[in-house]
Design a protein that fits this description.
- This protein is α/β, with parallel strands linked by helices.
- It folds into 2 domains: 217 residues, Alpha-Beta Complex (DHBP synthase); 106 residues, 3-Layer(aba) Sandwich (Rossmann fold).
- The chain has 11 helices and 16 strands.
- Helix 7 links the parallel strand 10 and strand 11.
- It binds threonylcarbamoyladenylate and magnesium ion.
- Magnesium ion binds next to loops.
């Protein structure tokens, strides 16, 4: 299949391109598109054949449900049995934006989209061109992250091209991705809202709007035998090709430990990478050193993380050491992704 790749940076041509992309979705095709979190791989969420194609293009198990992206809040009620009050409150506060809500689906949503579940995950992105595209596509775009299964979610158009060229109809590129980590997922089908995937909309932010919120126990304790409630969270996601380990502890001890480990691995002839921050960058002496950003500006870190993991792959780095990110508002979201990428390999110093 030939994939049409277009850059949305030439603002004047966008309307016709977004229309063309929308038409592809309506005809049952697939289009990758930018959002404020990560690139999505879109198909018509109400067309079972489109969802099957998405799974095939990603190489993803089809029991892993997709998020339906909408362009206006009113469209939510068209695909769920009921919009509970908490969902209204959260939509008012956080949509458009990086929040996905799980609700009971109605008959218009095929099981192919929900991986056989009676519930559906819905999100309205804040990325304006994404919303325009969704509108032209008929309003309900099912989209997982636009990576091949098992690779880090793409935050750059070139990574979407790398993973998806030849497998889908069109790729829309706009690299002004702000957040770089996937949306927070909150399940609203139970009595108490429950976070199934942490993101930059935090538990505290949700609690300000709806009162008590829980977090899926499988997220809090990855060693627990309980399966996560978001089926996708069970897979080994976001894994770089190199062996990633996280070093946690006081800043100076972490830096000293990483410097020592890098030296040892390099002696063995290994190519070694380091995930550092603006604060620590100057303290590392050897290895492929990447700056994830300023610890005081956490969005720099969220935006950089997946890009850095991909770059280590490109540079064929064999062993990677990362500082931990356990302080700050987004630490749960960042550590959730980093720990998965590391296969939960963490060294405390
Ligand atoms: O930021 C995002 O959410 C990005 C962009 C493209 O919007 N999308 C994304 O999709 O991250 P994906 O498919 O990579 O992750 C969706 C997650 C999976 O872990 C899946 O299991 C969970 O959402 N999920 C989807 N529908 C669900 C449902 N009905 N119940 C529980 N979990 C669900
Ligand atoms: Mg994904």
């Amino acid at each position: 299949m030939e994939t049409k790749i277009v850059n949305l940076e030439k603002k004047n041509k966008n309307i016709s391109l977004l229309k063309e992309a929308g038409e592809i979705i309506k005809r049952g095709g697939l289009v990758a598109f930018p959002t404020e979190t990560v690139y999505g791989l879109g198909g018509d969420g109400l067309n079972p054949e489109s969802s099957k194609k998405i799974y095939a293009a990603k190489g993803r198990p089809s029991d892993n449900p997709l998020i339906i992206h909408i362009s206006k809040t009113e469209d939510l009620e068209k695909i769920v049995t009921e919009v509970p009050n908490n969902a209204k409150l959260l939509a008012d506060k956080f949509w458009p934006g990086p929040l996905t809500m799980v609700l009971n689906k109605n008959e218009s949503v095929p099981y192919e989209t929900t991986g056989g579940l009676e519930t559906v995950a819905v999100r309205m992105p804040s990325h304006e061109m994404a919303r325009e595209f969704i509108e032209y596509a008929g309003g309900f775009v099912a989209a997982p992250s636009a990576n091949r299964s098992g690779r880090p979610s793409p935050t750059r158009g070139k990574y979407v091209v790398e993973d998806m060229e030849g497998r889908i109809d069109m790729i829309l590129i706009d690299d002004s991705i702000e957040i770089g980590l996937e949306s927070t997922i909150v399940d609203l089908t139970g009595e108490i809202p429950c976070i199934l995937r942490p993101g930059i909309i935090t538990k505290e932010m949700l609690e300000e709007v709806v009162g008590r919120v829980e977090t899926d126990r499988a997220i809090l304790n990855p060693e627990s035998k309980e399966p996560p409630k978001a089926p996708g969270m069970k897979y080994r996601h976001y894994a770089p090709k190199g062996e990633l380990q996280i070093i946690e502890g006081e800043e100076e001890k972490v830096i000293a430990a990483i410097n020592r480990l890098v030296m040892e691995e390099e002696k063995k002839g290994k190519k070694v990478g380091i995930i550092a921050t603006s604060q620590s960058l100057a303290c590392y002496r050897q290895g492929v050193i990447k700056n994830a950003g300023d610890r005081q500006k956490e969005m720099e870190i969220t935006r950089a993380l997946y890009r850095i993991l991909r770059e280590f792959d490109e540079e064929e780095v064999e062993v990677i050491y990362s500082e931990a990110f356990t302080k700050g508002e987004f630490s749960q979201a960042i550590m959730n992704r980093l720990l998965k990428a590391a296969g939960y390999h963490i060294i405390k110093v």
